[in-house]
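In the previous chapter we treated chains in isolation. Here, by contrast, the input contains four separate entities that must be folded as one system, with a combined length of 372 residues.
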Amino acid sequence: MAKAGTRAQRMAERRQQILDAARAMAEADGWTAVTSRRLADAIGYTQPVLYGHFPGGKTEIMRTVALAGFAELAAAMQAAIRGKTGPQAVAAVADAYLDFAATHPSLYEAMFQLPIDARFAQDDAETELRSGFNALGAALGTDADGTATELLWSALHGMSLLERAGRMRPEHRPNRIAELAARFAN
Amino acid sequence: MAKAGTRAQRMAERRQQILDAARAMAEADGWTAVTSRRLADAIGYTQPVLYGHFPGGKTEIMRTVALAGFAELAAAMQAAIRGKTGPQAVAAVADAYLDFAATHPSLYEAMFQLPIDARFAQDDAETELRSGFNALGAALGTDADGTATELLWSALHGMSLLERAGRMRPEHRPNRIAELAARFAN
DNA sequence: ACTCCTTCTCTAGCGGCGCTAGGTTCTAGC
DNA sequence: GCTAGAACCTAGCGCCGCTAGAGAAGGAGT
């Protein structure tokens, strides 16, 4: 008899362990500090074990972490909008978005800045991405061809990165959100 | 007698050679392909020579390339605005910005996405950065506390990255620019 | 109980990275 | 021609992502 659970269960557990460790490590010291050796150490095994779970190596691990991030971001935005309309909805979704990016900078980095980007659109990422996009669209109310939604996403994405890079006055964020809500509410 | 010019001249020339090679290499194959060995090969010397010119290593080289990029971007924006006001000015500056980012993706990456960011503000970067920021502000006309300018910069920055990542419909860029001009003019 | 076979895990190593200590060659000034 | 210093290279460090192949562990059949 095995120590605990079925083979598949143990595999799934360890897979999650790897993802958790990678995410924690990234948030603590940045993605460059997430090396295959350190990651293997963290889960109590050696490097090759990682490749058993993620044949694509570090890239696949980051991609998987990013995927979870998209789901979380979409959920946060949906929760923020609930029951709001007009400028309030826009301000709420903007606040939620920027908060998410600021609170989980490395997660956000994995989602948008790393070489995961290329050809992301075909698989299950589509669902989470679309879901987040829709949340933004919902905040705007009507947006026939999605152009305004694209613009709003652009502004939020850019702002989160520029804030993080120290290129925007942090204390002005409320002003920026107000400005955004004023200019984007239908 | 030396082969050509003074010592200082030869140093300056080679310094520029390194920067040119790094930039060309980055645009051709991305920054990860710009390694100290390949870079040294490209200028016909060995690695340690690079460190004579740029004690900070690869980071300092990228930072220097990025600095030139800021100057170019600011110039492109200023040229685009010339003689325009209102929505036309905003559209023109947006077009110039997005064009720059799309035409020199790796240069743009060095300017905004790489770990150069941290504490950039104290030295000569300030000038070029401020100059670009001012060009955006000029396109907007009046912007008392700079909030609208921050917002415009955010939108352009985010849009350029999302376009590059394939997350925005490329054929819709004119729509996005029009939307931007409409929402941001005065 | 013993063998066999699969499944799991580790050891060891490859090529490449950024970077640097220390020796060698060249050059300029006397 | 000699010498001091600048210029440059060789060789190597510790790290990276990744993998081939050896060996241990554990269940199935006899």
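Chain A touches chain B at residues 112-113, 117-121, 129, 145-148, 150-151, 153-159, 161-162, 164-169, 172, 175-176, 179-180, 183-184 (CB under 8 Å). The mean pLDDT of chain A is 89. Compare these points with the single-chain example from earlier in the chapter.
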